[in-house]
Amino acid sequence: MLEQATYERVRNLRGIKWRRYGDDVISAWVADMDIPPVKAVAEAMIPILQDGDLGYNIDLAAQLLPAYAAWQDRHHGWNPDVERLRTFTGSLQALEAALWLRTDPGDGIVVFSPIYFPFLNVIEQTKRRIVDVRLDDETWRLDADRLESAIDSTTRMILFCQPHNPIGRVFDEAEVSAVAEMAEKHDLLVVTDEIWGDLTLTTPHRPLATMDERLKGRLITLGSASKTFSLAGLRCAVAHIDDERLTEKLDALPMHLLGSSSTVSAAGTLAAWTHGDEWVASMRDHLRARCEQLQTRLAADLPEVTMTSPEATYFGWLDFRRTHIADDPSKHLLNEAKVALSPGITFGAQGAGHARINFATSAEIIDDIIDRIVELVRR
Asked: How many angstroms separate the CA atoms of 379 and 377, rounded?
């Protein structure tokens, strides 16, 4: 059911993943899949362009919200309140709106590092303060005592990532309970980025909204088809806002300040959430196979480079600290092996000596990447 990723396809793409570096570089860094999206997306968008049907289409965008709610109900057992859903042009836009409207400069924002680096950038750019609660170095679990000790009177928000990027963990009930306890105790807003929730490998995804009653009334859930279907360029996301204070502040903004999804992006996203069920099931099988391939190759050919076994996402978190390229693995790999991975250090201090690999590609490309890494480390 899935179309395969080939060098012919990826070398002809116009996005940054395969265009940023030269044609001699194999790219496995930014979070784009190499596999084409479900055909229903193009089938929904192309007629709009062919017919020149590019006028106002408010009704199409309005259909996104019940479609998202239905998708969450089918796949994750969560029936979000459609009245609390809003559309955004991206999950980061929704996060920035929550930061800007519900916190003040200097306020503390909790993150669990290593963490998706745009979260760190957003906090710094809005003049808020990063409260870094490091995950355990060995298990990558959330430490409840470490979380509690990090919170002070200026802390206002916990920024969660479920499943977690870059580690690929699905946080369990005990970890979510620790977050909920601190949120209730200190009256904190919790923003949970759940855009990876459909791409689970070993552990089912449970939305935070279904896991702990103490989060009720203080939870913002970010959702999108961008990662599930590799549609980041459509610029379309939703947020479920279970926080009346943020709702009031959003309602007070000028109508067009935050913008909205386009007709084409709404059509593509709607098609994905309406017709993409079988495709996503096939994609999960494909990602499990590529993850197993990656782990098998590393264990057999390069055991000094270890990889955290992801429970979700299509990322491998590679530890190069026992190799001669440990000082800056991604730099050495790009310059000397012509392989582009995401630098681990950008995800926080714990990322030193690590790199993130994107394995949402073909078996052939995975083998070529590992061959190049092995050759460099063995050199």
From this structure: 6
- What token pair was written down for 85? 């859903």
Dihedral (Cα; 195, 199, 201, 202), 10-degree rounding: 50
d(CA 180, CA 218): 10
Per-residue DSSP letter, 296: H
Instruction: State the residue range of the domain holding 97.
Output: 42-275
Do residues 285 and 148 share a domain? no
Which residue pairs, CB below 8 angstroms and at least 24 apart, start in 143-151? Answer: 144/174, 144/175, 144/178, 144/181, 147/110, 147/178, 147/179, 147/182, 148/178, 148/182, 150/110, 151/108, 151/110, 151/182, 151/186, 151/188
Q: Which two tokens stand for residue 205?
A: 């995804």
Number of structural domains (the chain) is 2
Which tokens belong to 346?
A: 């950008």
Which SS3 state, helix, strand or coil, does residue 255 take? Answer: coil
What is the token pair recorded at 350?
């714990």
Q: What are phi and psi of 263, to 5 degrees?
A: -60, -45
Q: Which residues pair with 223 in a beta bridge?
A: 238
Please report, for the domain that includes residue 183, its CATH number.
3.40.640.10
Which of 275, 290, 305 is the C-terminal boundary of a domain?
275
284, two tokens:
């999960």
Instruction: List, in sequence order, every beta strand (DSSP E) within 162-259.
Output: 189-193, 219-223, 237-242
* Measured CA distances, 139 to 134, 166, 308, 315, 347 (Å): 11, 14, 9, 16, 17
Tens of pLDDT along the chain (379 residues)? Answer: 788 899 999 999 999 999 999 999 999 999 999 999 999 999 999 999 999 999 988 888 889 999 999 999 999 999 999 999 999 999 999 999 999 999 999 999 999 999 999 999 999 999 999 999 999 999 999 999 999 999 999 999 999 999 999 999 999 999 999 999 999 999 999 999 999 999 999 999 999 999 999 999 999 999 999 999 999 999 999 999 999 999 999 999 998 999 889 999 999 999 999 999 999 999 999 999 999 999 999 999 999 999 999 999 999 999 999 999 999 999 999 999 999 999 999 999 999 999 999 999 999 999 999 999 999 999 8
